[in-house]
Design a protein that fits this description.
Layout lengths: L1 H30 L28 E6 L5 E14 L5 E8 L4 E23 L3 E26 L4 E12 L2 E6 L4 H16 L1 H23 L4 H13 L17
Antiparallel strand pairs: 1-2, 2-4, 3-4, 4-5, 5-6, 5-7
């Protein structure tokens, strides 16, 4: 009987602790929203960049086979991409497992505006068409769930995110690509939701997100132990974050 009572108490205590930690994590993310426009220069040149807007310096390649009934293949090289709207995120779930060493963040954004340059080729069953120029897109009801598996590295027992698994969905997308006529743009808009939801495409997106986000996140996590992280979030729950919205000249983010 004593063993059962002790077990129940330990479950209650652990559940209460986990709930407090998750509340602190949610508060921390919500409060850092104010620093999205300027990023976190104090995390170093390979640290956390500005997120509003988010402008990765790398190019993004889309190479999708069997892209639909009309499109056999889609190849597109996207450059100078700029994403507006991430600062307006809504958190559905945040969860940190202190013992299991994993974290989940589930968020959505009502509207994302994504702009940049493109070099696109579409292969149809009996023909092909290509175009290049600027592109503009409006993504509605964007949602992303990220699961982060962690371990510890020595010496120091510091945290390390070893793998990221993402799931991305959206309600609709409207893309206009220069160099492609209105009919082709209409075909793209009608096919893109199914293309993004395809498991193979989701895996490619996950690989791209992991390649970008792992070094950014580990630039912070690799400096903290789990007790450090818990204490940091606990302190932040009662103390607002410092205003980091300033530009440090001479610092270039590489990501």
């Amino acid at each position: 009987m004593k063993i059962q009572i002790a077990l129940i108490l330990s479950i209650i205590i652990h559940g209460t602790f986990a709930s407090v930690i998750n509340d602190h994590l949610r508060t921390f993310i919500e409060q850092e929203r104010q620093n999205f426009p300027c990023g976190w220069p104090d995390t170093g040149p390979n640290g956390i960049p500005p997120l509003e807007p988010f402008a990765p310096s790398r190019n993004w390649q889309m190479d999708i086979a069997n892209a639909g009934d009309l499109i056999r293949d889609l190849k597109s090289d996207l450059s100078n991409v700029v994403v507006h709207g991430l600062q307006q995120f809504f958190l559905h779930e945040v969860r940190l497992e202190v013992i299991g060493l994993w974290m989940r963040i589930d968020f959505s954004v009502d509207i994302l505006n994504v702009n940049g340059m493109h070099d696109t080729t579409l292969f149809f069953n009996n023909a092909a068409t290509a175009g290049r120029g600027r592109f503009q897109s409006v993504v509605r009801n964007f949602r992303m769930t990220g699961n982060f598996a962690m371990n510890t590295i020595q010496p120091g027992n510091f945290l390390n995110i070893r793998a990221i698994q993402t799931l991305i969905s959206f309600g609709s997308i409207n893309v206009q690509m220069e160099g492609l006529d209105s009919t082709i743009n209409s075909i793209l808009n009608s096919h893109l939701p199914a293309l993004i939801n395809d498991p193979a495409t989701q895996q490619r997106i996950n690989d791209e997100v992991s390649e970008v986000m792992l070094p950014i996140m580990n630039s912070v996590f690799n400096t903290m132990t789990m007790p450090d992280l818990v204490q940091f979030m606990s302190n932040r729950a009662t103390n607002p974050p410092p205003q980091r919205c300033f530009i440090r000249r001479g610092v270039k983010f590489n990501f």
